[in-house]
UniProtKB/TrEMBL annotation:
One Pfam family it belongs to: GST_N_2
PANTHER family: MALEYLACETOACETATE ISOMERASE
Protein name (database record): GST N-terminal domain-containing protein
One function term, GO molecular function aspect: glutathione transferase activity
Domain (GST N-terminal) ranges: 4-84
GO biological process: glutathione metabolic process; L-phenylalanine catabolic process
Record CDD domains: GST_C_3 (cd03194), GST_N_1 (cd03043)
PROSITE patterns tied to this protein: GST_NTER (PS50404)
Native source organism of the sequence: Oceanospirillum linum
Amino acid sequence: MTQPVLVIGNKNYSSWSLRPWLLLKQFGIGFDEIHIPLFTDQMPQLMTEHTPCNKVPVIKDGDLAVWDSLAVCEYINLRFLDGKGWPEDLQLISLGRSAVAEMHSGFPDLRHELPMNVRRSYTGFKASEKAQQDIDRIIALWQQLLESSGGPWLLGDFSIADAFYAPVASRFNTYDIELPEALQRYVKQILELEAYQEWLADAKAETEVIVEEEVEL
Ligand SMILES: N[C@@H](CCC(=O)N[C@@H](CS)C(=O)NCC(=O)O)C(=O)O
């Protein structure tokens, strides 16, 4: 059987790409990668060649191409993880799905003001009131999930929810966001994953800079 292929953007910037990549890695699923450097001259041709929607991530599995990070993670869960991408408990799955949906469609100020930039670390970053509201909501959400599941991951074992919030953990680290101690531990746990370290090393090796994603203090 040939391996699935994950089509992704720059590892330094593409938060949507990190989600399925981390999920596959954490569950030890073999896959090949195609990288599309975002907003470069090569991007349009590569997008046409490898994606149905001109966006990443996309997973290609034989003749099938699945796009959008949520659909990609759900495909991975059903096709390769035997459903283990979610916990078994109905209450926890439902809380997790709500949290993932909230991440997928929400937090616009966090996304805009604190773009993922895994290789940078800022000191003295000050979030606007609206971005701070997003941060506060994520803090409350993570606390709720960790308390409900008992941890150490958001839903107990590592799940799609952690894959979805890993880019936020990365942002909190990059922009040095103040967090309660238990959540500092959660962020550290994400950053110390072997898979995250691999992603970071690859991001550091990238040479492209997307000026719009580089915050100037
Ligand atoms: N909702 C989509 C968003 C995907 C998305 O916006 N990807 C960005 C990269 S992180 C992209 O491909 N941008 C290229 C473009 O907009 O032309 C998902 O979850 O996969």
